[in-house]
Amino acid sequence: MASPNGGVTTYDYDDSDSAAPVRAQTIEELHSLQRKAAATTKDGASPLQSISASLASLAREYGPNLVKGDPEAKVAPVPVKHQQPSATIASSDSSLKFTHVLYNLSPAELYEQAFGQKKSSFITSTGALATLSGAKTGRSPRDKRVVKDETTEKELWWGKGSPNIEMDERQFVINRERALDYLNSLDKVYVNDQFLNWDPENRIKVRIITSRAYHALFMHNMCIRPTEEELETFGTPDFTIYNAGEFPANRYANYMTSSTSINISLARREMVILGTQYAGEMKKGLFGVMHYLMPKRGILSLHSGCNMGKEGDVALFFGLSGTGKTTLSTDHNRLLIGDDEHCWSDNGVSNIEGGCYAKCIDLSQEKEPDIWNAIKFGTVLENVVFNERTREVDYADKSITENTRAAYPIEFIPNALIPCVGPHPKNVILLACDAYGVLPPVSKLNLAQTMYHFISGYTAIVAGTEDGIKEPTATFSACFGAAFIMYHPTKYAAMLAEKMQKYGATGWLVNTGWSGGRYGVGSRIKLPYTRKIIDAIHSGELLTANYKKTEVFGLEIPTGIDGVPSEILDPVNTWTDKAAYKETLLKLAGLFKNNFEVFATYKIGDDSSLTDQILAAGPNF
Ligand SMILES: Nc1ncnc2c1ncn2[C@@H]1O[C@H](COP(=O)(O)OP(=O)(O)OP(=O)(O)O)[C@@H](O)[C@H]1O
Ligand SMILES: O=C([O-])CC(=O)C(=O)O
Ligand SMILES: [Ca+2]
Ligand SMILES: [Mn+2]
């Protein structure tokens, strides 16, 4: 710039800007202008009173000293009146202390809380909250305990194969007290009041109390979010979770075999979590409760994804972890009802949850664009690895775990159907990731076969990432979710058979696993082919296709599908070593047979001819 006045550069610089000055005398005043107060509920104390009751000790005769709001906000604490007899002299040190309750915070507030709390929460390049779940990066089914009392002893499924490992009422309240003492010792706890089940007639009110902001954000995303009005009239929850997962269980206590313990009391309507911070425990713990409550009302609870075509045709996707429920129910051409937990009542289907929990190992923008785009501000990313500077996530990195996850509200999927309800299903798709490579990519099932495969609940996982392990491992999990069911599997199976018959749904078995040889020899069926197969089920194309029957499993397989190479439809064609194929096929058939033996003595439903048909619907060799 040329300088007109002899070498001295002048700048067009004005100290007194032309706009009006801010209306603040101090920096604190300025900051307080920044945030516009949110509308407060009419009776600010009422949720706090209910929370005080939730957090009250059973052993002592008073509740904790609770105040609403963040201790950092520097507002003088105004304690709520709790059950402590009025005008008492504090009888213990713990009753002199305040615990701040942060009630139904927004995602933005929870982000700020998460950053202040742990050195393990970060914003990724797309705005998601990256967190660590600590030592546990998956569920701990062996540490689940359910209170066995006079009622549940008769009602629930106990013993071999059952997920319900017993504890008594007394040990439950001891663990509850341990969790409460821990939570009440903290400066602040997070409390979420939310709903489960989009069917308004069968909605359940849940309260989640946790020490970690990320857990509160996870449940904000995964449960149904109440409106301000619904919160005002929330009242007493139907079920409460005490998540003290940062604090261990006492392994010397009765029924405890490790320092992790997930305890459910159906009579008290409570769940206690000690010694694991994996957020999926809360989600699947509540799912177990729904598996207890809903069948009592004649409603079937299902570990399935669900979506609907533009013409109103609904499909359910059953399958164990990693078989494709989330991936295949999230379909650009269809409306998403939900990815993991549903109810089937006489009114149709409804999602239990308000969000999705997608596996994100090897996630790619090209193959799963909707899930990729859902990973933005508000989404919780568990145990992923990111670039320290750019904060870009490396979805291929398994350094922390293979089970990396994204939890997001269902509205983050553009074609989600809100409210998440639909009519009766037309197709029931059973997904299996067969690492043996012998199940066909798709087969049409009759009702007995559908029930046989539903009760078997097969998938095979590859034997992890350790060197030298080449054998796939078969897993059988009744109803494709034995870890979550409460009654004997035949109860759910009978309900499914009855509903499929009544509403005329067709069953399908889809192998999303290996083709051209077992794991180590062949390769996983390409996702675009599986999508074409699923499209052909939805469109009705496969109902009218030509079929042939496979040996051993007796499955009906189509001879051609638009967009899928015909030779892969019969797995025998894809194996170069035909003898190895036959041997592997018989091996898997044997595993199915062994697994089903325990069910052979049970009757399914009122119709004993159905039981006989189901028993005959398995492999024949
Ligand atoms: N042919 C295929 N069909 C479906 N999924 C495939 C296929 N090939 C690879 N995949 C991958 O397999 C994984 C399926 O996981 P998904 O999250 O859908 O499991 P899920 O059934 O929802 O399990 P969970 O109950 O644990 O949530 C995804 O990572 C997906 O990309
Ligand atoms: O529950 C979890 O942690 C993940 C999940 O959906 C499953 O395992 O079925
Ligand atoms: Ca899923
Ligand atoms: Mn699941």
TrEMBL record:
<keyword id="KW-0963">Cytoplasm</keyword>
<dbReference type="InterPro" id="IPR008210">
    <property type="entry name" value="PEP_carboxykinase_N"/>
</dbReference>
<comment type="subunit">
    <text>Homohexamer.</text>
</comment>
<dbReference type="GO" id="GO:0005524">
    <property type="term" value="F:ATP binding"/>
</dbReference>
<dbReference type="Pfam" id="PF01293">
    <property type="entry name" value="PEPCK_ATP"/>
</dbReference>
<keyword id="KW-0312">Gluconeogenesis</keyword>
<feature type="region of interest" description="Disordered">
    <location>
        <begin position="1"/>
        <end position="20"/>
    </location>
</feature>
<keyword id="KW-0547">Nucleotide-binding</keyword>
<protein>
    <recommendedName>
        <fullName>phosphoenolpyruvate carboxykinase (ATP)</fullName>
        <ecNumber>4.1.1.49</ecNumber>
    </recommendedName>
</protein>
<comment type="similarity">
    <text>Belongs to the phosphoenolpyruvate carboxykinase (ATP) family.</text>
</comment>
<dbReference type="GO" id="GO:0006094">
    <property type="term" value="P:gluconeogenesis"/>
</dbReference>
<dbReference type="GO" id="GO:0005737">
    <property type="term" value="C:cytoplasm"/>
</dbReference>
<dbReference type="InterPro" id="IPR013035">
    <property type="entry name" value="PEP_carboxykinase_C"/>
</dbReference>
<dbReference type="InterPro" id="IPR015994">
    <property type="entry name" value="PEPCK_ATP_CS"/>
</dbReference>
<dbReference type="InterPro" id="IPR001272">
    <property type="entry name" value="PEP_carboxykinase_ATP"/>
</dbReference>
<keyword id="KW-0456">Lyase</keyword>
<comment type="pathway">
    <text>Carbohydrate biosynthesis; gluconeogenesis.</text>
</comment>
<keyword id="KW-0067">ATP-binding</keyword>
<keyword id="KW-0210">Decarboxylase</keyword>
<dbReference type="GO" id="GO:0004612">
    <property type="term" value="F:phosphoenolpyruvate carboxykinase (ATP) activity"/>
</dbReference>
